[in-house]
Structure prediction request, 319 residues.
Amino acid sequence: MDNFKIYAQQDIDRLVISRDGETKLGEKVAILTSWEELQNTRAKFVLLGIPEDIGVRANAGMAGAASVWRPALTAFLNIQSNWFLDGGEILVLGHFDIDEPGESTLKGLRDKVAEIDALVYPIIEKITAAGKIPIVIGGGHNNAYPIIKGASLANKIPIDVLNIDAHADLRRLEGRHSGNGFSYALHENYLDHYFMYGLHQNYNNEAILSQIEHNPKLKAVFFDDILTGTDFADLINEIGEVAGLEIDLDCMEHVLSSAETPSGFAVNDIRKLILSNAGKFSYLHICEGATRMLDGRVNKLTAKLIAYFVSDFVKSNMS
Prediction:
């Protein structure tokens, strides 16, 4: 049965590799023993996972995104605790346990994604309402919708979102999947202005391009234009006070995902973007990466990549 697993101390301890004379983040992070503690914990950031790829499969993609949560968490917990990042700023909350749908048809998968939406958004709403910043490791990009919904409900306004992605994920309202999270968020008025950075001209259909052209709430910078000198400043300056940051790892070169690409951002492009935009975002969602794909491809470095992005985000928001 679908549920949210809150981590106990032993869940953290078993992932930490101890070494004499050193302290790891996992030895300093907070945990939650009851929801009532959330408001009063000194931790500003709440880390949680959604290890599923049902939404990716519901969008005709390949399974694999469910594989990255535990390796990424392990990589993060084994970062050194030092004066740059102590660990006490972070509460490791837990992860969603999500069963496979009863039917593996496209309709069955999409119906299951709607059930995942209903499971995820109340947790995000609760974290945000407590004045904390959710950091969510997916999972498919379908989870953007419940994250946006939860943040919007907690703030009592539609929020802005910056999505660093090769794809706009503005497909039709045809049943929930990883390609239409922003469509549903816009349709239901949880998403106000939607900013897209790094879209690939080759992989966004004509209907999506038409939406971007005609809807004043949508603004996109294409990766193809970045290659010829378009910068990021104008986009970031338009983002409102309450905004989320979405990073789809398929926007990056050679990162394992359902839509892995040979052309995209380098790791340090994204690290620089995160580190240089301190305090602008009310949540971080990293999605679509994998350590193992259904077709047998494996890349353990995806976990360490995510650990870098999470630690960069925390540092940039602590300054």
User: Anything to note?
Assistant: Strands lie at 3-6, 45-50, 90-97, 133-138, 159-164, 191-199, 218-222, 243-248, 283-287. The domain at 3-318 is CATH 3.40.800.10 (Arginase; Chain A).
